[in-house]
Amino acid sequence: xxxxxxxxxxxxxxxxxxxxxxxxxxxxxxxxxxxxxxxxxxxxxxxxxxxxxxxxxxxxxxxxxxxxxxxxxxxxxxxxxxxxxxxxxxxxxxxxxxxxxxxxxxxxxxxxxxxxxxxxxxxxxxxxxxxxxxxxxxxxxxxxxxxxxxxxxxxxxxxxxxxxxxxxxxxxxxxxxxxxxxxxxxxxxxxxxxxxxxxxxxxxxxxxxxxxxxxxxxxxxxxxxxxxxxxxxxxxxxxxxxxxxxxxxxxxxxxxxxxxxxxxxxxxxxxxxxxxxxxxxxxxxxxxxxxxxxxxxxxxxxxxxxxxxxxxxxxxxxxxxxxxxxxxxxxxxxxxxxxxxxxxxxxxxxxxxxxxxxxxxxxxxxxxxxxxxxxxxxxxxxxxxxxxxxxxxxxxxxxxxxxxxxxxxxxxxxxxxxxxxxxxxxxxxxxxxxxxxxxxxxxxxxxxxxxxxxxxxxxxxxxxxxxxxxxxxxxxxxxxxxxxxxxxxx
Length: 490
Known about the structure:
Radius of gyration: 24 Å
Largest sheet: 7 strands, antiparallel
Shape: globular
């Protein structure tokens, strides 16, 4: 049988399976849906298969068993309040700076340490997790899987909500699903279910709305820091969770039962802040550390710095820096470069068909290197690409790619050149001395102000705005003695 006929037969089998799958009433939503291609047993199987891949793609499990156990306990409390209490639920804290949460079929729910750093109390974290549990019990992931199977046999969506090809790499089901978001109706349904589970588990459901407002503020600040005010980052949770505060408030009002703000509703502010004291921020020693515009990789023992106006994002297989007007810097590592020199590697291994012009041998802090450039004609106008190859040991090559609009290249060239020559190997002592930023919980003292506390942050810009966003404070809101607040420090 030819490949084309084989695929056609698979498609017919898939369509037939869907047609014969029958209908069922979902106990969580009350909706009648096709059971389709994905049975509950298949959901469990797919989730178990994809779980290790998700952990790998998103920086691993956060290395704090106490924190992991705390989050899992919250998740189990909520899951017991759902319509599927007997599902083998798995709750994981991912060692990733992105502010995100997502789920896989079969009861796999993930929150990032970036999201945990933003949350203010246990109820806010519970609100996020209850929403993701709602996606699972409503079978939104199963519905997406079925739709993907019908549209393209062999490609399925598993519900990862990051929206970034740059951070989720490697193709396949996980990366494909990362580009998708749930519909507004599905988000509202997950909110309704999440509020139901929060109330049943004894949490204040208003926390779901308060945390969404923090997400909106954080998204807006990130866009300002990146020089794109009003434009959400594609890696941001708000880009793939099309939700509004009004709709979340409607879900809370529609839930009935325990009134929001009931005195015995659990919030857990002090307990939560105590748990996240010391949480990594902007990287960790294993995956790499971001300190303003400098990236430090202690495990691989190298560092480099990007120009002003660029913002670093650390991914699983690459480091990306976004700059003005769409300019990009991308660092990747090739460990199969062989023993050739950098110029040969650049022209014959990395980019043999790129048509590089003005290839030049360079030396960067004692490292053999080579660089070449090419101008590309695109539908968005001419783009300049510069490649830099730096030879490491044991066949390793560090690869820097610089991309800018042709009209911006001259203005950016000096800063990009400085980035190239900032690349350096770290000694064992320098690598061991590299310390990531961490969340530090401090008590406000008499005389402290937002401005005085914000001045202690280690960032170069937007200090008061960062402090307010980190602590969920509105413009003009002050601090009071005895209050616990979050800071960032080494």
